[in-house]
Amino acid sequence: MTPPPGALLAADNLRKAYGPTNALDGAEFSIHPGEVVAVMGPSGSGKSTLLHCLAGIVTPDSGSITYDGREMSTMSDAQRSALRRSEFGFVFQFGQLVPELTCVENVALPLRLNGTPRKAAERAALSWMQRLEVDDLGRKRPGEVSGGQGQRVAVARALVTDPRVLFADEPTGALDSLNGERVMELLTDAARSTNAAVVLVTHEARVAAYSDREIVVRDGKSRDMERAI
Amino acid sequence: MSVRQWARDLRMGAKFAFTGGREGWIRVLLTAVGVGLGVALLLLTTAIPSALTAREQRGNARADYPSHYDNPERPKTDNTLVIAKLDTTYDNKNVRGRLVQPDGPRATLAPGLTKYPAAGDMIVSPALRELLDSSDGKLLRERLPYRVVGTIGESGLIGSQELAYYAGADDLEQRIGKDWEVARLDAFGATDQTSTRLDPVLILLVLVVFVVLLTPVAVFIAAAVRFGGERRDRRLAALRLVGSDSRMTRRIAAGEALSGSLLGLVFGTVFFLIGREAAGSVQIQDISVFPGDLNPTPALAALVAVAVPAAAVLVTLLAMRGVVIEPLGVVRTAKPARRRLWWRLLLPLAGLAMLYPMFGQGRDQGNFNQLLVIGGILLLLAGVTALLPWVVEAVVGRLGGGGVAWQLAVRRLQMSSGMATRPVNGIAVAVAGAIALQMLFAGIEGDYTKDTGKDLDRAQMQVNTTPGIPLAPVTEKFAALKGVRKVTALGIGSMGNISWRSADGPQRMVQVAIGDCAALRETADLPSCHDGDVFALRSSRNDGGDTKVLAKPGRTLHLGTSEVSGTALDVKWTVPQDLKHARVIKDPNGMEREGFLMTPSALPAQASGALSGEIYLSLDESVPYVKEQVRNTAVTADLFANTTVWASTEQSTKFVKIRIGLLIGVTCVLLLIGASLLVSQLEQLRERKKLLSALVAFGTRRRTLSLSVLWQTAIPITLGLLLASAVGLTLGAVLLKMTAETVSVHWPSVLSMVGIGAGVVLLVTLCSLPPLLRLMRPDGLRTE
After folding, report:
1. Which chain B residues are closer than 8 Å to A112 by Cβ?
2. Is this structure's pTM higher than 0.95?
3. What is the residue extent of each domain of chain A?
4. Which of A130, B93, B169, B660 could cross-link with B99 by S-S, CB 3.0 to 4.6 Å?
5. A48 contacts in chain B (CB < 8 Å)
6. What is the dotted CATH code of the domain comprising A9-101+165-227?
7. Predicted ipTM of the assembly
């Protein structure tokens, strides 16, 4: 199947098994620039695997993924890594900040991995931290900040490279509702301001409410709720 | 707090250690294996003295030389035995050989034998049997053309890998009195068992070797009881949630450590027993031991059994001072107090103070105070472990800049320099000690190394034949061997002023060497030389001594074999009128001869039976097995020929043994510590599995992460090795001062030790790369 017109990232008939378990069983997906798509489903349904496949972290057993017109299955590991470094951003459930780096160093890390000089990278990092209201945490280490603050630092880190696609895997899963909502507001606002597409994996309806469209994954199969309606 | 409370918490800790599921088991196993390896090494070390004593006792029990050989005239009875020493060397290994001929059915039996072999048969040690049966032993088989009919029992050997044989003979009796190596004896065993007292400097060396090798093992054990500490802390946090207070959690942790170390003692005993069996099949520089002889000294073994668990508890309690365990699974590292330098400096300074009184004592003034030596060195080496965390913290605190890999490494070190230095401590201590010892070895080497004076450019092997063996055919056989470039053969006899058969023998005697002109020119500067010439030697060292008195033309002298009294040949010879004089030069042996040189025609025909042979061989050593071929040829020409391979220097065997012991020990210790470094490295990587996967997910190159791991190891190791070099050089200088030697640094030794330490780190890093790459796979992000 050809990807939907204008789709930045699209997947068709994805299959992925871990041993005898089929994590993905013919899943489909597409997202356009600036669009926020929530991937929903119960635990173990395959939504995180779908995200990992879309981001080029995991290679599917079969099926195709196209990013910006390029087939990802033909890319080498190094090419996919370069893509993740420069075009994608990531937020995980537990920020996965590097504990020994300060918050500003954590945010600057993706830029530094792309070769940006340290000072310039940290300047850009501080500006993103400002937008996410955590600029006062710059010199602190992740262990010294609260969960909500840490997750905002992680969002800043995901956005600092101006990614075209932001992958967020249960970004509020470890936060209380108030902090969760604030993180989602900041994340979606920031993404929309840069026209980044957001793939948002969640099982919470109130988080999915920040999306433009929802895809439900169950037993490895996906269902686009907008098209279904 | 009551003892009951302590016991209850320790018991609970023990229970958690063994019932904590897979994670708990892995932690206990890691600790137990680590402690076990350390304990095994300690037990093996404490068993070495007993093994060496047993070796000496075995040697004494079978002694037949020289106490019996110096009395060859023992009467023949039915319990006597004629024995001849036929030791040889094969492929750089010594082979103990004896020819035996029992005088009667009750002939005294050598230890390890149940009966003597018949003529043409031999009884061999298990190692010799194995060698003779293998293709490697082909040339030795030619040298020992006897039929193997039995095996020497353990009691007749000094080591499990010793090469030894007893071969039966029927013509030995007639050689008594003709050969030094043949004698009649009625019992085995050394009559004089007073062993020579070890030189104080060598005792000092042995002490230092032991301290230097055992200190890193102790440091290693301390590191091993902390394996898996982070996972244990998480479990303890869960205990806090259900109501245990912080003191209880510490005691429970101590209980876990105690269980791990007790299991480690069991593992250590098993490893020791396995190692003991394995040691039986190992031979290092001709030294092997029987497993049964490797018995740890009971007092030291008891000390290990008590000290190791006690140290485990102590180390755990000390380590937990820096950790705050809170409920809800939160474990925060307590804000570490700034490390203070002053008390860390006290340790090495106290060590120096203990050693200072022994400065300049040397070997002349005898004993070093062993307690002060051990205490002083221990404190100096412990100073390394105390100073290193401070040095690493101080240095990494000032580091900055660099690429991402460098930044990740430096920041990690800044956050937990203690964790990084812990495994390095062992290597640093081992290297410091080894540097000091190498310096000491290099400093005193001259005292234990003698220049043999042999001229290796002129010859590399020497064969001495017994009196009466005609030299010409032997020389031809050697010359025909592939790889023999030149043969210089001299017949050697003694010329006395009166008959060798007279009651007291000659009062004045000189040596006489017989050979062709080319051979004689190897020993003297001959103006001209023709067959029939006789030369009297002039030495530059003295006024001529007996030569000057005896070398009077027309004087009758007596040529004989002076080696064995009573049965000597005696051939009259008159100093010729045309006696020439020659200036002596050093022969290939490095000796300046005195007496007469003769060409073959100048010698009375009947005199050949009085001459022994001295044959110098120049070899092409690139020809395989040329030395073995020479030895085989020598044996076929003369069973009792003595063959030696020359070396330019020779070292005291005790000195060499201590040096070899050090090398083996240091290598074992460094490998052991390398293993602990690897375990702690893998453990840290496992703890960071999710983070590593996340870093890879957002595009971090694997090379960057690998480099970061390398830096994390390399920085503390570099600092550790620098500190180790400084402490090692200081200790080396102190030890040299104590032995009253000039202090000088033997840089190749220092660099080689530092290189070995760095090599271990590189090896560990290389070994940790495959698991690192595996952990960096995105699967780490999966939670289901």
Report:
1. 403-404, 407
2. no
3. 9-101+165-227
4. B169
5. 781-784
6. 3.40.50.300
7. 0.76
